């Protein structure tokens, strides 16, 4: 039994509000949204973090980004949005399955770069 939370969400063992799915990507609403739109975009392949991105999974990671315009459009983010990845404990990563936060629906402040 895979005890990874996001693997279990992808498998449908734990309910989520899906907004997009293809053969490599699953995207669903964050349970604790930080903005009107807060979607988590995850590869179906289990990668613990950005540290595991490499030659053998570039297609899975690219598929996450390829899905962004479609998700942004369906969520009505024509004014803009932000994509965030937290990698590792010091960056605040709490779920060890690679995911990209897609955030928008309001004016976003607090830029850190
Ligand atoms: P991280 O802090 O690892 O970058 O982001 C993990 C995100 O997963 C958090 O924003 C948190 O709200 C979200 N999250 C944690 N557990 C669940 C859950 O069971 N369902 C959903 N939809 N999101 C979750
Ligand atoms: Zn996983």
How would you characterize this protein structure?
With 113 residues, this protein is an alpha+beta fold. Helix content is 20%, strand content 22%. The protein has 3 helices and 5 strands. The chain has helices spanning 5-11, 58-66, 68-74; strands spanning 18-21, 25-29, 37-43, 81-84, 100-104. A 5-stranded antiparallel β-sheet has the order 1-2-3-5-4. A hairpin with a 7-residue loop joins strand 2 (25-29) and strand 3 (37-43). It binds guanosine-5'-monophosphate and zinc ion. Guanosine-5'-monophosphate is lined by residues 5, 16, 28-32, 40, 86, 92-95.
Bound heterogens, unique: guanosine-5'-monophosphate, zinc ion
| Beta-strand share of residues | 15-25%
Kindly provide the radius of gyration, computed on alpha-carbon positions and rounded to a whole number of angstroms. 14 Å
Which strand order spans the largest sheet, edge to edge or round the barrel? 1-2-3-5-4
Number of helices: 3
pLDDT under 50 segments (min length 5)? none
Cα shape: globular
What profile does the largest beta sheet have? 5 strands, antiparallel
- How far from one another are the termini? 39 Å
Quickly give the structural class: alpha+beta
Helix content: 10-25%
């Amino acid at each position: 039994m895979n005890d990874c939370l996001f693997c279990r969400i992808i498998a449908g063992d734990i309910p989520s509000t899906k907004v997009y799915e293809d053969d490599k990507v699953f995207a669903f609403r964050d349970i604790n949204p930080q903005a009107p739109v807060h979607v988590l975009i995850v590869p179906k392949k289990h990668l613990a973090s950005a540290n595991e991105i490499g030659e053998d999974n570039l297609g899975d990671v690219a598929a996450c980004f390829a899905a962004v315009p479609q998700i942004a459009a369906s969520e009505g983010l024509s004014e803009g949005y932000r994509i965030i990845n937290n990698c590792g404990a010091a960056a605040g990563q709490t779920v060890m399955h690679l995911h990209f936060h897609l955030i928008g629906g309001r004016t976003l402040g607090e830029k850190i770069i």
